[in-house]
Amino acid sequence: MNAFRRLALGVALALAAAGAAYAQAPKPQWDAREGDFTVRDFRFRTGETLPQLRIHYTTLGKPARDAQGHVTNAVLILHGTGGTGQQFFRPQFASVLFGPGQLLDTSRYFIILPDDIGHGKSSKPSDGLRMHFPKYDYGDMVEAEHRLVTQGLGVDHLRLVMGTSMGCMHAFMWGEAFPTDMDALMPLACLPVPLAGRNRMWRAMTIQAIEADPAWKGGDYGQQPLQGLRTAADLTAIAGSAPLQMQKTLPTREAADKYAADYVGSSLADADANDEIYYIDASRTYDPEPDLGRIVAPVMWINSADDFINPPELGIAEQEVKKIRNARFILIPASMATHGHGTHTWAAVWQDHLAELLKASAH
After folding, report:
1. pLDDT, position 137
2. Is 223 helix (H, G, I), strand (E, B) or coil?
3. Number of folded domains that form the chain
4. Minimal CA–CA distance to 331: which of 302, 307, 311, 351?
5. What CATH code is carried by the domain that includes residue 211?
6. Mean pLDDT, to the nearest integer, of 136-142?
7. What is the structure's pLDDT at 266?
8. Which of 190, 228, 245, 250 counts the most CB atoms within 10 A of its CB?
9. How many other CB atoms are there within 10 angstroms of residue 117's CB atom?
10. Domain limits for position 314
Protein backbone atom coordinates (compact mmCIF):
# COMPACT_ATOMS: atom_id res chain seq x y z
CA MET A 1 0.00 0.00 0.00
CA ASN A 2 1.20 3.45 -0.86
CA ALA A 3 2.03 5.63 2.13
CA PHE A 4 -0.11 8.45 0.85
CA ARG A 5 -3.05 6.29 -0.04
CA ARG A 6 -3.61 4.99 3.43
CA LEU A 7 -4.21 8.47 4.77
CA ALA A 8 -7.23 9.68 2.95
CA LEU A 9 -9.20 6.55 3.73
CA GLY A 10 -9.78 7.84 7.18
CA VAL A 11 -8.40 4.75 8.83
CA ALA A 12 -7.85 5.58 12.47
CA LEU A 13 -4.12 5.98 12.13
CA ALA A 14 -3.85 7.22 8.59
CA LEU A 15 -4.06 10.46 6.66
CA ALA A 16 -6.83 10.56 4.24
CA ALA A 17 -5.58 13.47 2.22
CA ALA A 18 -2.47 11.81 1.28
CA GLY A 19 -3.84 8.38 1.50
CA ALA A 20 -2.20 5.04 1.84
CA ALA A 21 -4.94 2.56 2.55
CA TYR A 22 -6.67 3.55 -0.61
CA ALA A 23 -5.80 0.19 -2.04
CA GLN A 24 -8.48 -1.69 -3.90
CA ALA A 25 -11.41 -2.21 -1.59
CA PRO A 26 -14.07 -4.91 -1.92
CA LYS A 27 -17.38 -3.99 -3.51
CA PRO A 28 -19.66 -6.52 -1.81
CA GLN A 29 -23.27 -5.70 -2.64
CA TRP A 30 -22.49 -2.73 -4.85
CA ASP A 31 -23.25 -2.99 -8.55
CA ALA A 32 -20.17 -1.05 -9.58
CA ARG A 33 -19.22 -0.33 -13.17
CA GLU A 34 -15.72 0.78 -14.15
CA GLY A 35 -14.63 2.55 -17.28
CA ASP A 36 -12.07 4.81 -18.91
CA PHE A 37 -12.67 8.16 -20.56
CA THR A 38 -9.95 9.41 -22.90
CA VAL A 39 -9.36 13.10 -23.53
CA ARG A 40 -7.31 13.64 -26.66
CA ASP A 41 -4.61 16.32 -26.78
CA PHE A 42 -5.31 17.47 -23.24
CA ARG A 43 -3.57 20.78 -22.63
CA PHE A 44 -2.27 21.36 -19.12
CA ARG A 45 -2.05 24.77 -17.52
CA THR A 46 1.75 24.69 -17.92
CA GLY A 47 1.25 24.56 -21.71
CA GLU A 48 2.29 20.91 -21.86
CA THR A 49 0.02 18.47 -23.69
CA LEU A 50 -0.70 14.76 -23.52
CA PRO A 51 -1.95 13.08 -26.71
CA GLN A 52 -4.24 10.83 -24.69
CA LEU A 53 -5.24 11.54 -21.10
CA ARG A 54 -6.99 8.55 -19.53
CA ILE A 55 -9.43 9.19 -16.68
CA HIS A 56 -10.61 6.03 -14.96
CA TYR A 57 -13.89 6.03 -13.10
CA THR A 58 -16.37 3.85 -11.25
CA THR A 59 -20.12 4.42 -11.16
CA LEU A 60 -22.90 3.09 -8.95
CA GLY A 61 -26.58 3.19 -9.75
CA LYS A 62 -28.16 4.50 -12.94
CA PRO A 63 -28.77 8.00 -14.25
CA ALA A 64 -32.36 9.26 -14.04
CA ARG A 65 -33.47 11.77 -16.68
CA ASP A 66 -36.15 14.41 -16.84
CA ALA A 67 -38.45 15.06 -19.78
CA GLN A 68 -35.70 17.03 -21.54
CA GLY A 69 -33.21 14.17 -21.13
CA HIS A 70 -31.09 15.85 -18.45
CA VAL A 71 -29.65 13.67 -15.69
CA THR A 72 -31.18 14.67 -12.34
CA ASN A 73 -29.61 12.31 -9.79
CA ALA A 74 -25.83 12.42 -10.34
CA VAL A 75 -23.50 12.70 -7.33
CA LEU A 76 -19.78 13.32 -7.87
CA ILE A 77 -17.49 12.16 -5.02
CA LEU A 78 -13.82 13.20 -5.19
CA HIS A 79 -10.95 11.44 -3.43
CA GLY A 80 -7.87 12.70 -1.62
CA THR A 81 -4.19 12.90 -2.51
CA GLY A 82 -2.81 9.52 -3.48
CA GLY A 83 -6.22 7.86 -3.43
CA THR A 84 -8.73 6.52 -5.93
CA GLY A 85 -12.47 6.27 -6.19
CA GLN A 86 -12.16 2.83 -4.63
CA GLN A 87 -11.66 4.33 -1.18
CA PHE A 88 -15.36 5.07 -0.99
CA PHE A 89 -16.22 1.38 -0.90
CA ARG A 90 -14.77 1.12 2.59
CA PRO A 91 -17.46 0.13 5.10
CA GLN A 92 -17.19 3.34 7.13
CA PHE A 93 -18.35 5.23 4.02
CA ALA A 94 -20.24 2.91 1.67
CA SER A 95 -22.10 0.91 4.32
CA VAL A 96 -23.35 4.14 5.89
CA LEU A 97 -24.38 6.00 2.72
CA PHE A 98 -24.94 3.75 -0.30
CA GLY A 99 -27.38 1.12 1.01
CA PRO A 100 -31.18 0.89 0.69
CA GLY A 101 -32.85 3.83 2.39
CA GLN A 102 -29.55 5.54 3.14
CA LEU A 103 -28.71 9.10 2.14
CA LEU A 104 -26.99 8.23 -1.14
CA ASP A 105 -28.97 5.05 -1.83
CA THR A 106 -27.63 3.76 -5.16
CA SER A 107 -31.13 2.77 -6.27
CA ARG A 108 -31.93 6.52 -6.25
CA TYR A 109 -28.61 8.18 -7.11
CA PHE A 110 -26.05 7.85 -9.89
CA ILE A 111 -22.70 7.93 -8.04
CA ILE A 112 -19.56 8.96 -9.97
CA LEU A 113 -16.16 8.08 -8.47
CA PRO A 114 -13.21 9.25 -10.62
CA ASP A 115 -9.54 8.40 -10.27
CA ASP A 116 -7.88 11.79 -10.67
CA ILE A 117 -4.95 12.55 -12.96
CA GLY A 118 -1.85 10.90 -11.50
CA HIS A 119 -3.87 8.42 -9.43
CA GLY A 120 -5.17 4.88 -9.60
CA LYS A 121 -5.87 3.66 -13.13
CA SER A 122 -5.80 7.14 -14.66
CA SER A 123 -2.79 8.50 -16.56
CA LYS A 124 0.19 9.05 -14.26
CA PRO A 125 3.99 9.41 -14.30
CA SER A 126 4.63 5.74 -13.47
CA ASP A 127 2.91 4.70 -16.71
CA GLY A 128 6.24 5.38 -18.40
CA LEU A 129 6.89 9.11 -18.77
CA ARG A 130 8.16 9.42 -15.21
CA MET A 131 9.34 13.02 -14.56
CA HIS A 132 8.55 13.91 -18.18
CA PHE A 133 4.85 13.58 -17.43
CA PRO A 134 3.13 17.01 -17.62
CA LYS A 135 3.32 18.93 -14.33
CA TYR A 136 -0.37 18.83 -13.53
CA ASP A 137 -2.03 20.88 -10.79
CA TYR A 138 -5.47 21.02 -9.19
CA GLY A 139 -6.80 23.18 -12.03
CA ASP A 140 -5.91 20.44 -14.52
CA MET A 141 -7.47 17.79 -12.31
CA VAL A 142 -10.75 19.68 -11.94
CA GLU A 143 -10.90 20.32 -15.69
CA ALA A 144 -10.43 16.60 -16.35
CA GLU A 145 -13.11 15.74 -13.77
CA HIS A 146 -15.50 18.14 -15.49
CA ARG A 147 -14.82 16.66 -18.91
CA LEU A 148 -15.41 13.16 -17.58
CA VAL A 149 -18.74 14.18 -16.07
CA THR A 150 -20.03 16.26 -18.99
CA GLN A 151 -18.42 14.69 -22.07
CA GLY A 152 -17.70 11.19 -20.87
CA LEU A 153 -20.88 10.50 -18.90
CA GLY A 154 -23.25 13.04 -20.44
CA VAL A 155 -24.13 14.72 -17.13
CA ASP A 156 -24.65 18.49 -17.35
CA HIS A 157 -25.85 19.04 -13.79
CA LEU A 158 -24.97 17.39 -10.48
CA ARG A 159 -27.24 16.86 -7.51
CA LEU A 160 -24.18 17.02 -5.23
CA VAL A 161 -20.42 17.48 -5.40
CA MET A 162 -18.71 15.98 -2.37
CA GLY A 163 -14.97 15.78 -1.80
CA THR A 164 -12.55 14.59 0.87
CA SER A 165 -9.19 16.26 1.56
CA MET A 166 -7.80 17.05 -1.92
CA GLY A 167 -11.31 16.32 -3.17
CA CYS A 168 -12.56 18.85 -0.63
CA MET A 169 -10.32 21.47 -2.22
CA HIS A 170 -11.54 20.43 -5.66
CA ALA A 171 -15.13 20.86 -4.48
CA PHE A 172 -14.48 24.54 -3.73
CA MET A 173 -12.92 24.88 -7.19
CA TRP A 174 -15.95 23.24 -8.81
CA GLY A 175 -18.22 25.70 -7.04
CA GLU A 176 -16.21 28.62 -8.45
CA ALA A 177 -15.51 27.33 -11.98
CA PHE A 178 -18.97 25.86 -12.63
CA PRO A 179 -21.23 27.71 -10.17
CA THR A 180 -24.57 26.62 -11.65
CA ASP A 181 -23.59 23.03 -12.41
CA MET A 182 -24.55 21.57 -9.03
CA ASP A 183 -27.35 21.77 -6.46
CA ALA A 184 -25.06 21.46 -3.43
CA LEU A 185 -21.43 21.22 -2.32
CA MET A 186 -20.03 19.24 0.59
CA PRO A 187 -16.29 19.83 1.14
CA LEU A 188 -14.81 17.59 3.86
CA ALA A 189 -11.45 18.24 5.53
CA CYS A 190 -9.73 21.18 3.90
CA LEU A 191 -9.36 24.96 3.81
CA PRO A 192 -10.01 27.21 0.78
CA VAL A 193 -6.69 29.06 1.00
CA PRO A 194 -3.21 28.40 -0.44
CA LEU A 195 -1.21 25.68 1.29
CA ALA A 196 1.31 27.40 3.54
CA GLY A 197 2.77 27.05 7.02
CA ARG A 198 2.99 23.53 8.42
CA ASN A 199 0.67 22.10 5.79
CA ARG A 200 2.97 23.04 2.94
CA MET A 201 6.09 22.38 5.01
CA TRP A 202 5.46 18.67 5.62
CA ARG A 203 4.63 18.21 1.94
CA ALA A 204 7.83 19.99 0.90
CA MET A 205 9.81 17.82 3.34
CA THR A 206 8.28 14.73 1.78
CA ILE A 207 9.30 15.74 -1.73
CA GLN A 208 12.77 16.80 -0.58
CA ALA A 209 13.31 13.46 1.18
CA ILE A 210 12.60 11.54 -2.01
CA GLU A 211 14.67 13.80 -4.23
CA ALA A 212 17.61 13.71 -1.78
CA ASP A 213 17.80 9.92 -1.92
CA PRO A 214 20.74 8.98 -4.21
CA ALA A 215 18.62 6.18 -5.65
CA TRP A 216 16.08 8.68 -7.03
CA LYS A 217 18.41 9.72 -9.90
CA GLY A 218 16.21 12.56 -11.06
CA GLY A 219 13.26 10.22 -11.37
CA ASP A 220 15.02 7.71 -13.62
CA TYR A 221 15.55 5.13 -10.90
CA GLY A 222 15.96 1.42 -11.53
CA GLN A 223 14.66 0.62 -8.05
CA GLN A 224 12.41 2.74 -5.87
CA PRO A 225 14.35 5.22 -3.66
CA LEU A 226 13.33 3.51 -0.43
CA GLN A 227 15.27 5.84 1.89
CA GLY A 228 13.28 8.81 0.69
CA LEU A 229 10.02 6.89 0.60
CA ARG A 230 10.57 5.73 4.18
CA THR A 231 10.88 9.33 5.35
CA ALA A 232 7.78 10.19 3.31
CA ALA A 233 5.87 7.40 5.05
CA ASP A 234 7.00 8.62 8.47
CA LEU A 235 5.82 12.18 7.77
CA THR A 236 2.54 10.91 6.40
CA ALA A 237 1.86 8.81 9.48
CA ILE A 238 2.24 11.86 11.71
CA ALA A 239 0.18 14.10 9.43
CA GLY A 240 -2.62 11.57 9.43
CA SER A 241 -2.54 10.84 13.12
CA ALA A 242 -5.59 10.96 15.38
CA PRO A 243 -4.33 11.46 18.97
CA LEU A 244 -7.25 9.91 20.86
CA GLN A 245 -7.51 6.94 18.52
CA MET A 246 -3.77 6.32 18.59
CA GLN A 247 -3.60 6.51 22.36
CA LYS A 248 -6.41 3.97 22.58
CA THR A 249 -5.17 1.52 19.96
CA LEU A 250 -1.44 1.90 20.74
CA PRO A 251 -1.45 2.13 24.56
CA THR A 252 2.11 0.84 25.12
CA ARG A 253 5.58 1.62 23.81
CA GLU A 254 5.75 -1.84 22.26
CA ALA A 255 2.45 -1.43 20.43
CA ALA A 256 3.44 1.99 19.08
CA ASP A 257 6.87 0.74 17.95
CA LYS A 258 5.34 -2.26 16.21
CA TYR A 259 2.77 -0.13 14.43
CA ALA A 260 5.47 2.28 13.24
CA ALA A 261 7.51 -0.59 11.80
CA ASP A 262 4.52 -2.31 10.20
CA TYR A 263 3.15 0.93 8.79
CA VAL A 264 6.36 1.85 7.02
CA GLY A 265 6.85 -1.66 5.70
CA SER A 266 3.40 -1.93 4.18
CA SER A 267 3.53 1.65 2.90
CA LEU A 268 6.58 0.91 0.78
CA ALA A 269 5.13 -2.19 -0.86
CA ASP A 270 3.72 -0.51 -3.98
CA ALA A 271 4.84 3.10 -3.64
CA ASP A 272 6.11 4.95 -6.70
CA ALA A 273 8.33 7.93 -5.93
CA ASN A 274 7.54 9.96 -9.04
CA ASP A 275 3.80 9.52 -8.62
CA GLU A 276 4.08 10.70 -5.02
CA ILE A 277 6.12 13.77 -5.89
CA TYR A 278 3.62 14.74 -8.55
CA TYR A 279 0.45 14.33 -6.55
CA ILE A 280 1.83 16.01 -3.45
CA ASP A 281 3.09 18.99 -5.45
CA ALA A 282 -0.14 19.32 -7.47
CA SER A 283 -1.47 21.58 -4.70
CA ARG A 284 1.22 24.20 -5.36
CA THR A 285 -1.11 26.59 -7.25
CA TYR A 286 -4.25 26.01 -5.18
CA ASP A 287 -5.92 29.28 -4.16
CA PRO A 288 -9.72 29.49 -4.35
CA GLU A 289 -9.90 32.24 -1.71
CA PRO A 290 -10.28 35.27 -4.06
CA ASP A 291 -13.29 33.75 -5.85
CA LEU A 292 -15.27 32.23 -3.00
CA GLY A 293 -18.00 34.77 -3.68
CA ARG A 294 -18.67 33.08 -7.03
CA ILE A 295 -20.08 30.01 -5.30
CA VAL A 296 -23.88 30.03 -5.41
CA ALA A 297 -24.79 26.44 -4.48
CA PRO A 298 -25.51 25.68 -0.81
CA VAL A 299 -22.32 24.58 0.95
CA MET A 300 -21.99 22.27 3.97
CA TRP A 301 -18.29 22.43 4.86
CA ILE A 302 -17.03 20.08 7.55
CA ASN A 303 -13.66 19.77 9.32
CA SER A 304 -12.72 17.92 12.48
CA ALA A 305 -10.95 19.43 15.48
CA ASP A 306 -8.25 16.73 15.60
CA ASP A 307 -7.11 17.33 12.00
CA PHE A 308 -3.32 17.85 11.92
CA ILE A 309 -3.47 19.10 8.33
CA ASN A 310 -6.21 21.67 8.89
CA PRO A 311 -5.83 22.64 12.57
CA PRO A 312 -8.82 24.60 13.89
CA GLU A 313 -6.67 26.97 15.94
CA LEU A 314 -5.75 28.78 12.72
CA GLY A 315 -9.27 30.21 12.65
CA ILE A 316 -9.20 30.29 8.85
CA ALA A 317 -12.46 28.46 8.21
CA GLU A 318 -14.52 30.78 10.38
CA GLN A 319 -13.27 33.79 8.39
CA GLU A 320 -13.48 32.27 4.91
CA VAL A 321 -17.00 30.86 5.28
CA LYS A 322 -18.29 34.45 5.54
CA LYS A 323 -17.25 35.01 1.92
CA ILE A 324 -19.57 32.27 0.62
CA ARG A 325 -23.14 33.46 0.31
CA ASN A 326 -24.94 30.23 1.25
CA ALA A 327 -22.47 28.25 3.32
CA ARG A 328 -22.30 26.67 6.73
CA PHE A 329 -19.07 25.56 8.41
CA ILE A 330 -19.17 22.71 10.93
CA LEU A 331 -16.21 21.88 13.18
CA ILE A 332 -16.66 18.41 14.65
CA PRO A 333 -15.17 18.23 18.17
CA ALA A 334 -12.41 15.67 18.70
CA SER A 335 -13.70 12.49 20.31
CA MET A 336 -13.36 8.74 20.13
CA ALA A 337 -15.66 8.91 17.11
CA THR A 338 -13.31 11.14 15.08
CA HIS A 339 -10.23 9.94 13.21
CA GLY A 340 -8.06 12.99 12.69
CA HIS A 341 -7.89 14.15 9.10
CA GLY A 342 -9.49 10.89 8.04
CA THR A 343 -12.77 11.75 9.78
CA HIS A 344 -13.93 12.78 6.32
CA THR A 345 -14.40 9.12 5.39
CA TRP A 346 -16.25 8.07 8.57
CA ALA A 347 -19.71 9.01 7.37
CA ALA A 348 -21.50 8.16 10.61
CA VAL A 349 -19.84 11.19 12.19
CA TRP A 350 -21.30 13.72 9.74
CA GLN A 351 -24.18 12.05 7.92
CA ASP A 352 -26.79 14.18 9.74
CA HIS A 353 -25.23 17.27 8.15
CA LEU A 354 -25.38 15.62 4.73
CA ALA A 355 -29.07 14.92 5.30
CA GLU A 356 -29.59 18.57 6.19
CA LEU A 357 -27.80 19.70 3.02
CA LEU A 358 -29.75 17.38 0.73
CA LYS A 359 -33.02 18.53 2.25
CA ALA A 360 -32.15 22.22 2.03
CA SER A 361 -31.02 21.95 -1.61
CA ALA A 362 -33.91 19.80 -2.87
CA HIS A 363 -36.14 21.23 -5.59
Report:
1. 98
2. coil
3. 1
4. 302
5. 3.40.50.1820
6. 98
7. 78
8. 190
9. 30
10. 4-360
